[in-house]
């Protein structure tokens, strides 16, 4: 059994509106350091919105969010939060005009004030970790989707975040590239990094997730171990959803 530490993310009664639309309806979630939590649920259920509130890409309207002891509110603490929370998107979001190496060194040099030498050394170690050190001097457009996503993971890790958020990181990939990205994510999970991952990849969830959290209509409907959730879902909406994806 992995040991889990203190609370690193606490969300209490989080609500979010887009105009009239009530996208998050009182979400409660606590994540401890070292935990790997998989978030699943139908399209439009608020999964992306929720994880985006955790680094304030989306401000919430009410309720409380505390990340690494810092409460998210107003515009304050934004830098402190973004430093501690790494994010990987479905669409990679690399800077197209920068080399792979430069994509990874940019934030640590700017935000953490690392020297170029230190930032590049760390970037190369991370490229080794994600299995593509030979791509360091290429530009994103010269890489496959799976390679670009691995660069995006290395870039997020370069800031040494306390938490990594992944929003459907393999959904935009061709099937043969999904495994190479999931393998990297499994290695991170096993190394003890705290991760929140929106994904419908059941194999990943079964292998490394401590918990699966099922979202529907802006709230958490069911929460269980992967074993419990996939084999014995309790709620009608979870059962229906699983019957559609499996
Ligand atoms: P999921 O990631 O589970 O598919 P999202 O969190 O992206 O769902 O979206 C939840 C709901 O909020 C959807 O109905 C979506 O259309 C709506 N929504 C998300 N972002 C915005 C936005 N910026 N403006 C208006 N509506 C939005
Ligand atoms: Mg989404």
In N-to-C order, the SSE pattern is EEEHEEHEHHHEHEHEEHH
Approximately what portion of the residues adopt beta-strand conformation?
25-35%
How large is the count of helical segments? 9
Secondary structure class reads alpha/beta
Bound small-molecule species: adenosine-5'-diphosphate, magnesium ion
Task: Determine the fraction of residues in helical runs and give it as a percent range.
Answer: 25-40%
Mean pLDDT, as a whole number?
A: 95
Instruction: Characterize the largest beta sheet: strand count, sense, and whether it forms a barrel.
Output: 6 strands, mixed
- Please list the strands of the largest sheet in the order they lie side by side: 6-7-8-3-9-10
The end-to-end span amounts to 28 Å
Quick recap:
With 246 residues, this protein is of the alpha/beta class. 38% of the residues lie in helices and 26% in strands.
Walkthrough of the structure:
- The protein is α/β, with parallel strands linked by helices.
- The chain has nine helices and ten strands.
- It has helices at residues 47-53, 78-84, 100-111, 116-129, 145-158, 175-190, 202-208, 226-231, 236-245, and strands at 7-18, 21-32, 36-40, 62-67, 70-71, 85-88, 163-167, 194-198, 211-216, 219-224.
- It has a six-stranded mixed β-sheet with strand order 6-7-8-3-9-10, sandwiched between helices. The chain has a four-stranded antiparallel β-sheet with strand order 2-1-4-5, covered by helices on one side.
- Helix 3 (100-111) crosses helix 4 (116-129), helix 3 (100-111) packs parallel to helix 5 (145-158) and helix 4 packs across helix 5 (145-158).
- The longest helix is centred in the last third of the chain and has 16 residues, at 175-190.
- The radius of gyration is 18 Å and the shape is globular.
- The protein starts with 6 loop residues before the first strand and ends with a helix.
- The mean pLDDT is 95.
- The structure holds adenosine-5'-diphosphate and magnesium ion (MG).
- GO terms for molecular function: ABC-type amino acid transporter activity; ATP binding; ATP hydrolysis activity.
- This is ABC-type polar amino acid transport system, ATPase component.
- Belongs to the ABC transporter superfamily.
- Residues 9-242 form the ABC transporter domain.
- It comes from Deinococcus peraridilitoris (strain DSM 19664 / LMG 22246 / CIP 109416 / KR-200).
């Amino acid at each position: 059994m992995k040991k889990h530490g203190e609370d690193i993310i606490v969300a209490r009664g989080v609500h979010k509106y887009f105009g009239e639309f009530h996208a998050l309806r009182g979400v409660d979630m606590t994540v401890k350091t070292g935990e790997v939590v998989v978030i699943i649920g139908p399209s439009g259920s608020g999964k992306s919105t929720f994880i985006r509130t955790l680094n304030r890409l989306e401000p919430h309207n009410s309720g409380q969010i505390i990340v690494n002891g810092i409460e998210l509110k107003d515009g304050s603490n934004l830098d402190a939060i973004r430093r501690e929370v790494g994010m990987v998107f479905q669409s990679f979001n690399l800077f197209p005009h920068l080399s792979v190496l430069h994509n990874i060194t940019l934030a640590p040099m700017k935000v953490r004030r690392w020297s170029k030498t230190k930032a590049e050394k760390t970037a190369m170690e991370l490229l080794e970790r994600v299995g593509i050190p030979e791509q360091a001097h290429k530009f994103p457009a010269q890489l496959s989707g799976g390679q670009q996503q691995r660069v995006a993971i290395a870039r997020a890790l370069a800031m040494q975040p306390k938490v990594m958020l992944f929003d459907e990181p393999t959904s935009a990939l061709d099937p043969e590239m999904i495994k190479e990205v999931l393998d990297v994510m499994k290695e991170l999970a096993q190394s003890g990094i705290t991760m929140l991952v929106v994904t419908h990849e059941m194999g990943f969830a079964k292998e490394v997730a401590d918990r699966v959290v099922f979202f529907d209509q802006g709230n958490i409907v069911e929460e269980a171990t992967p074993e419990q959730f996939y084999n014995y879902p309790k709620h009608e909406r979870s059962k229906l959803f699983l019957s559609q994806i499996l």
